[in-house]
Design a protein that fits this description.
By secondary structure, the protein is of the alpha+beta class. It has 2 helices and 11 strands. It folds into 2 domains: 16-77, no CATH class; 81-144, no CATH class.
């Protein structure tokens, strides 16, 4: 498990887009925690839940496991949300830029689909960083880099 910086704001995040917006504008305050599996996360929570801040990300380093975020009271599965009335962001899971796993085609098929990058690297002519996002745009991949 490793940790990044802290969130100090006290507000209610209801959707993944709220979380995205918060992280985009408050990145220097967020916490990212990465765990090997859900059991390791649960064991850590028993002694550390008091230190979590709203919006902290709790990521599972397994492509087949869901990721979570802290809403101030409990873990919430990081899932789909709507971005205004124009585009729907749909969380698809984790993606490895080095191995392109799961496979993503050169040109995105579904606008708004996004993955959290678990292993940064260069793909599609873009340098992706670990824990950033890859988002399907219109015929192009978008890189959301929170660093």
């Amino acid at each position: 498990m490793y940790q990044n910086s802290k969130i100090n704001d006290d507000f209610n995040l209801k959707t993944a887009y709220d979380l995205y917006t918060h992280l985009k504008y408050h990145d220097k305050y967020k916490n990212n925690y990465v765990f090997e599996n859900k059991s390791a996360l649960n064991a850590w929570l028993k002694n550390h839940s008091y230190s979590l801040k709203i919006g902290d990300l709790l990521l599972i380093d397994d492509v087949n496991s869901p990721d979570y975020w802290w809403n101030g009271h409990e873990l919430k599965v990081f899932k789909n949300s709507t971005l205004s009335n124009e585009i729907t962001l749909e969380y698809k899971g984790k993606w490895d830029a080095v191995t392109n796993t799961p496979f993503l085609p050169e040109i995105p098929e579904n606008i708004g689909n996004f993955w959290i990058v678990i292993n940064g690297g260069k793909r599609f002519g873009i340098q992706f960083v670990t824990h950033g996002w890859i988002v399907a745009g219109e015929n192009v991949w978008l890189n959301v880099d929170f660093t």
